[in-house]
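Researcher: We plan to redesign the surface later, but first we want a full-length starting point. Tokens attached.
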């Protein structure tokens, strides 16, 4: 998705999520209690969900809303559907 490379706002947002995830993963190397471990894993999951949502919105806008070629819109729709289905 080369168009994302040209979206500075999205790139900075994704990098911020990545840095938060890295910090959370670094915590996993410490001796955490069960609750601390669950909280760290949940926080990673939440940050990954934010990345997924940002990419999904960008994909929807660029490949569905702004795309004139019907076959490319169909491909984008199938790519999005594959995220939510077990067998794309």
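Model: Full-length starting sequence:
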């Amino acid at each position: 998705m080369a168009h994302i490379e040209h979206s500075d706002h999205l790139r900075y947002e994704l990098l911020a999520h990545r840095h938060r995830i890295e910090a959370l993963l670094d915590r996993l190397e410490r001796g955490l209690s069960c609750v601390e471990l669950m909280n760290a894993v949940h926080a990673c999951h939440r940050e990954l969900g934010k990345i997924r949502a940002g990419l999904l919105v960008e994909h929807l806008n660029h490949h569905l809303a702004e795309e004139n070629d019907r076959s490319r819109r169909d491909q984008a729709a199938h790519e999005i559907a594959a995220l939510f289905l077990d067998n794309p």
